[in-house]
Design a protein that fits this description.
9 helices; alpha/beta
Length: about 230
């Protein structure tokens, strides 16, 4: 189900996206792993969701065919997503966010609850309860950023799946070619995952298990959206 991309311009440059299906708008935001693009992340899911929703699947800034941004990757990415919503005349939408895309969805929902109908985060929010931090996927990601080789991206891909057979030579070649594009490599290096991982480098506190502490004040903020968070 190959789909041609469309583009819109915004203050930060250009954002490219796929627009598939009909129905209530559903934004699908990808992660920040090496070589990722919107279609590479969600191509296997879009045909199913497109039977029920209008799926809008953007390359986030600095990935695929979208322009990179400077400064805060969170704020810049949220601005780009909202600019895309405005350009398409969408006041309110449902969101699915994977990894970094889940972080973007969560912050967008917190800052602009009127724009979010429902929200699903996949490995994008929360803390690891049963594993030390940083967990393997983040370690392998940062290792690739520091040494972008085919071997390193293979290690990262294998750390992200249960069935290692999924990581074929064809997949590795495809992701490695995309990941070593200078703009994509710089974007990945600036991603929140790589920056968090550096806490575990020499001179920073060693990884530890996390304790869950109550963080909400007595007067909890009320949101006008419904959602579910799935952490890995």
């Amino acid at each position: 189900m190959a789909q041609e991309q469309k583009t819109v311009s915004h203050a930060g440059g250009q954002i490219a996206f796929h627009d598939v299906g009909q129905g209530d708008p559903l934004f699908m935001l990808h992660g920040s792993g090496p070589g990722v693009t919107a279609w590479m992340n969600f191509a296997g899911n879009v045909p199913v969701f497109a039977e029920h929703f209008r799926c809008i699947v953007p390359d986030l800034p600095g990935y695929g065919n979208s322009s990179p941004i400077q400064g805060d990757p969170f704020a810049g990415t949220i601005d780009a997503v909202m600019a895309l919503m405005d350009a398409l005349g969408i006041a309110r939408a449902r969101f699915i966010g994977n990894s970094f895309g889940g972080l973007i969805c969560a912050r967008l929902a917190a800052d602009h609850p009127d724009r979010v109908d429902r929200l699903t985060c996949i490995g994008g929010v929360g803390v690891p309860v049963f594993n030390p931090f940083p967990y393997e996927g983040i370690e392998r990601l940062a290792e690739f950023v520091e040494q972008p080789t085919r071997e390193q991206i293979t290690r990262w891909l294998r750390s992200m799946v249960y069935d290692k057979a999924i990581v074929t030579d064809e997949l590795v070649d495809l992701r490695f070619k995309s990941a070593t594009d200078p703009v994509a490599l710089e974007t990945t290096a600036r991603s929140i995952h790589a920056r968090i991982w550096r806490r575990g480098r020499p001179g920073w506190p060693a990884p530890t298990r996390c304790r869950i502490l109550p963080t909400y004040p007595r007067s909890r903020r009320r949101f006008s959206w419904r959602g579910v968070a799935m952490t890995g």
